[in-house]
Structure formats: structure tokens, C-alpha cells
Amino acid sequence: MAVTTLDPKTALIVIDLQNGILALPTAHPTDEIVKQSIVLLDAFRARKLPVVLVNVAGGAPGRTEQARHSGAFPAGWTDLVPQLNQQPEDHLVTKHTWGAFVGTGLEQHLKGLGVTQVVIVGVATSIGVESTARQAYELGFNVTLATDAMTDLNADTHHNAVTRIFPRLGETGTVGEIVALLGKTGA
User: What is the pLDDT averaged over residues 139-144?
Assistant: First the structure.
């Protein structure tokens, strides 16, 4: 379903736009993803709506069939890219799982602010973005996903998330459509 409305108290969640993640090969140029995310950051900040900046600094325990990073990250790997222009009022979440809600206090923070809807952007579409969207949906938030402000390490998994998973979790739209709705809804 295309994006139709935004609640008056909507938060923006920016997933893993950090040095280490953006250095990986992706399906779409990350410069454009950062640029589109900044458009949303500016729009949310101008309206004094909550902004959450998320980085990842580890992984959940447990065995997987794929090799995982098991050592220390290189210096600067977890640093958010400076273009995000982190502000003192932005809420920073460092996660150790794919999604931004598990073990981070993010649900309590957002609900404490009266947030009922989240707009999610970032990298990787099928990992951090999708996991955060699933968790937000399960926790009762309305979910909107800005599909032109996200990418994945793999074009097929990006396409699957955008076309098959996201419509079951919320609404999708472009950054331009979301900014236009921010202006119309008073959010």
C-alpha cells in the first residue's frame, strides 16, 4: 500500500548509516541513500519530530550457517557518517542485533514521547531495516518505509523486502511523498 498518512507524532529511524556498513558493496549507491535520508532528517528536525540514529556494533549470539565477524571492528567502523549532522536532540541507539528495538530501550523512548508511527530508512533493506520494521509493527507502531532511502547488499533481497515484506508491515513511499505528507498532516 502506498503511503497515505502520517500520525501527528511520527519518528524517523535511520538505520546503520555508518562508516563500516557504507563501505560495503551495495545494490544502490550509498551516496544517494545518505542524501535522501538527509532530506527526511531535515524535514523531521524542522518540525521538531523525534529522530533516532542507529548504528550496529555487534551481532546476536548463536550459530549461523554463514561466517560472522567475530573480532573487534576497525577504528571508526561504527561511527555514523558526518553528513547526518547528529544533533543533541537526536536519540542514538547502538544495537547488537539486526533490529533496533531488542535490548536498546527504543520502544520505551518512543512511547514515552507519544510516538505512534515510525518512518524507517537505511542499510541494509533486508537486515537492519526489515528487522526494525518487523519489531516496530509487532510493538504496535504504524510503519512507513522510504524505499528510495534504503539499499541492501544484494539487489534480490532488497527487491523482496520492498515488494513482498514491507507491504505486510506498513506503507511504503518515496522521500518526496513522505515530506509532502509531513506538510499536509501537521506532523
Answer: 98
Q: Which whole number is the average pLDDT over 103-120?
A: 98
Report yes or no: 53 and 84 within 8 Å, Cβ to Cβ.
yes
Condensed to tens digits (0 to 9), the pLDDT of residues 81-97 reads 999 999 999 999 999 99
* Predicted structure pTM score: 0.93
Cβ atoms of 14 and 84 within 8 Å: the answer is yes
Which domains, ranges and CATH numbers included, belong to the chain?
10-57+78-185 (3.40.50.850)
Nearest Cα to Cα of residue 185 among 2, 23, 10: 10
